From TrEMBL, chains A, B, C, D:
One of its GO terms (biological process) is L-glutamine catabolic process. It is an enzyme of class 3 (hydrolase). It comes from the Bacteria. This is Glutaminase. Homotetramer. It comes from Anditalea andensis.
Length: 304, 304, 304, 304
């Protein structure tokens, strides 16, 4: 399989489609980005890199970090975590508080904001220096210094965190939150403010395509069973209330972020990351989603 | 009309019914109350007092204070307030956050918690010393020193305010909250922690029965129009999602509190307060509601 | 009180406001009406009539008939009916099926469509010739032949009744529907297709203002208690999810219809009907609502 | 891989767990089944059959037929169908009408009842003799006469179809229903009343595991792309509001029915069917679900 030719072809086709979306503007640091940026990178299981466009440009990974932090607590918590957060698709916007009320403080899944707050609360309970430990973990699984926090974004996220504060207090009211809310929100927004480029983001997802073993860290990150479960979660819940559409059209486990990034894996084959800041109305990157759809359409193999 | 005989009759009948409910237990200070307390007091428009049972016993007025604080800001804000809070019955529990999400941060009415938080936010904007001003206002409309705060209840309310914190942050996320959240919650829980007896609570509602003029303060508190509007709000929204039932069976504008109190008025005739800590499943006092139902059934006149 | 001068003044002021709404167009027979029609009529408790504008023009009373049919079964059923339909404001659009699902087949109140279907089902159970009996009842309470059905509207309502069919089947699935669905829908749409003018509509509401005694039929229609309860229901639930707003601004028990009519009462004083086909976004007549608001503002007396 | 040993092991383990659920009782014909029945059968891509327990016992396939009927119209409609029904997980019970209201008559996916009604409506539009064509289709893909309708169940389903009638009328009110409602409900309940045993049910799912080519019919049933999309839909939506849980624990595309059956596939490997009438609270078979979970846990390979 000539991945480079494939990536180039996908890049050209998507670029020529004239897709127009809306850059996230809830904080000024995200709104200021060049809307025309677009890149993608594929990393196979030998670690070869294939990229096109702005695939070396760093961007805010935002909610994609929810997969990294979930991985960090899977290891620690095992099954106990799943009493505090469910594994069902939400069918509602990512920051909905209504569903949390109907279901008495148990978030639908770990990738909506309420669920990720529970995950971060668990992470703060178990790690000594959560911010440093997150950085160390991501650097480890990419095999080099690959990630840094954007402090302006971090501060701005904190300044605009009223909805997440509402979710956290609501979780606490239901006894599903153990640590200081400000502290957890600080770590939560820190993880959302991380910046990576497409190569490193794809590398950080490589072990998901490899049964849980990371070729860059040269160690097992997740048991095969845990690895399958996170892949399953990404397939059913990775794209908010557009998860079914992504599974239907693309068919890969993946996760999007409001910064315009998408990371996904084809188990046994490769990991891939795409980035373009223009979003559709569900908050997912138009070009990145389309790039992955074309990629799987052109490939012979599929999850199903 | 022999109000004293009427009150006595109602007291006897309700006492003999064996009604059993559940005392509020979300904070220990409320849970510790003697569940058998029951009293009621009626105040006519000449200021005569008719009471039965534990009508001189002080209790936590809780949400009944929402009517007092709304009155304090009606005077200041006039119509502008109604861009921030609606006047429709909620049809949902008093502390629902789901409805607030569906309606984009505009609370259904000023008597559900979200609406009362907006009212308190407005009050904090306009009054120099909100706590003192609330006390002064209530003392003024009862004509003597009638109210005090229970500091243990106040502290405990603050310690159990996660749901209200969630509502406040959600309001702030929708730009419907102007002041520091902790400060507003402090005032909000202060007002909920006020203690009065049935006589003084009925006196504090007297002007609602008298077109807005208070015979105890010897001054107009609300314009006739504002007075009618608050009475209308109490009739349609005063008893959470049991408001229709109360209007249907009792037919008086009124307001309940989770401490077991209910205050109501028959315009042109009298104000009345009843108190018993055992609540029904909607959070309204079983005996106090039944007492007011019997009262209007036995009386010849009615709102309708 | 010079009611004729008052009515004229209200008519002139509302006419000069340039209010613009949208005529109901879900069936062609309603859409074809002259949108500029506007009339109002007041009937005092001696039976004197005061009118302005198109107050002698007949129009489709639509949901206002729900009050007449409820009155017909109040007499028959007494309290048993209230196990099948609640008395709470809905807080949702008049034809919502979602709320009916959440509340397991018990409609919120008798004036939303689901509730009115239960009422009509009860009426079909108890009356031999429902259509004729409805006509006879309304003629009786207006004191002369005052109402007729528009068969074109009736047929068109039947042809567009899928939402109501959905509600009826849902009620049946919850064992809250006893008769043949097509038969009940036929009677339901028949009542919605009745036509009256403002004078007769006001006359038909006169007994609600008179403690349940009808001066035209020269007999008691409802007990004082039942009369108060229907008035209470109209105040809290008579204008769909705008009921709170109407109570707040107007303060009268009343009922609106999608044909542009509104009927209301001031207990002890008068009944009133207004009509203009241009509706606001909640489905209530803009000019008729405004006319009643001005009327109560200009009057000295009020419910509260 | 010794599939027979695996199937036997799974059968023994699940049998010894003492799982207790509730047999569907909304119609008497389902309630009368022996609750202790339990069987499973696996069919590999060469057509070899491996079974255990009551795997030759016929049972009511109920909603599993929704996959067959969807397959029949995929072929005819291609992409046009997806304007009428979405592909997102529902997050709500299978017969919810509330979600349909919020989303304006577009069902969440083709496997909830509202979506399956749209599919059946499309099927009635395109097939001359829908009942016969469904039977012929299933017989074709199993390679022999494998299915028959239980007329008692069929009649009973019709007699208990008020909720589905409500959904159909609601769809029609939103212009998302083209045929006579009674006719479509007749076909819909017919498909739900089909009976198969585990072998034939697994055979009927074989082509889903084989890129769309059926070894029994000896022809392509679905294009590779359509096949992947139905597999994706089964993974994200096949088990009502327990779909995420099934994907998380089992990780196979599949579909359950209220008769106690489950059918699933491992693409490239096999199809499998299990049956036991005792259901969990979500309406899925307790033992069948557990059997598939054990099966994938014991196997080396997985979708992810």
């Amino acid at each position: 399989m000539d991945y480079q030719a494939l990536i180039d072809e996908v890049y050209q086709e998507v670029s020529s489609m004239g897709l127009k979306g809306k850059v996230a503007d809830y904080i000024p640091q995200l709104a200021d980005i060049d809307p025309e940026l677009f890149g993608l990178a594929l990393v196979d299981l030998e670690g070869n890199i294939y990229g096109a466009g702005d695939y070396r440009k760093e961007f805010s990974i935002q909610s994609i970090s929810k997969v990294h932090t979930l991985t960090m607590v899977m290891h620690v918590f095992k099954s106990k975590l799943w009493h505090r957060v469910n594994v069902e698709p939400s069918g509602n916007p990512f920051n909905s508080v209504a569903q949390l009320e109907y279901e008495k403080g148990i978030p639908r899944n770990p990738f909506i904001n309420a669920g990720a707050l529970v995950i971060t609360d668990a992470l703060v309970s178990k790690y000594e220096n959560p911010e440093k430990d997150i950085i160390d973990f991501i650097n480890d699984i990419t095999g080099h210094k690959s990630v840094k926090v954007n402090e302006l974004v971090h501060q701005s996220e904190i300044d605009h965190s009223d909805r997440n504060m509402a979710l956290a207090h609501f979780l606490k009211a239901h006894n599903n939150f153990n640590n200081n809310i400000d502290r957890v929100l600080d770590v939560y927004t820190y993880a959302c403010s991380l910046e990576m480029n497409c190569i490193d983001l794809a590398r950080s997802f490589s072990f998901f395509a490899n049964d849980g073993y990371c070729i860059f860290a040269k160690r097992r990150i997740l048991s095969q069973s845990h690895n399958q479960r996170i892949n399953s979660l990404m397939l059913t819940c990775g794209f908010y209330d557009e998860s079914g559409e992504f599974a239907f059209r693309v068919g890969l486990p993946g996760k999007s972020g409001v910064g315009g990034g998408v990371a996904a894996v084809l188990p046994g084959k490769f990991s891939v990351a795409a980035f373009s800041p223009q979003l559709n109305e569900k908050g997912n990157s138009l070009k990145a989603m389309k790039a992955l759809e074309l990629l799987t359409t052109k490939l012979e193999f599929s999850l199903f």
